[in-house]
Amino acid sequence: MWEEGLTAEYRRDLVTNNLQNIMLYILRPLAAFLVGQTYVDKKGIEWKLAPFFNFFQFEEGEEPSRLEQLKKSCEEAVKKAAELQSLQSVIDGLIAV
Question: Is residue 42 part of a domain?
């Protein structure tokens, strides 16, 4: 990304497209999936769940990178919920910025 010869406009487009893909094709379907879940507590009361919006703490260090940690978390979510399978190609297309 920071190679010499890349214009500021090209770098901006890389970052913008990456963020847009995360928001539209990962966070939106995840939120829709979470909103559709229900939880029954010990008293038998049924609750509709809502997505949580929080920052995830990634492990510091060189390996695995934060992007790789994010990909791993998303892959685990896809394995647990088949409805999220369409996210995999978007996740695989993310770039480290």
Answer: yes
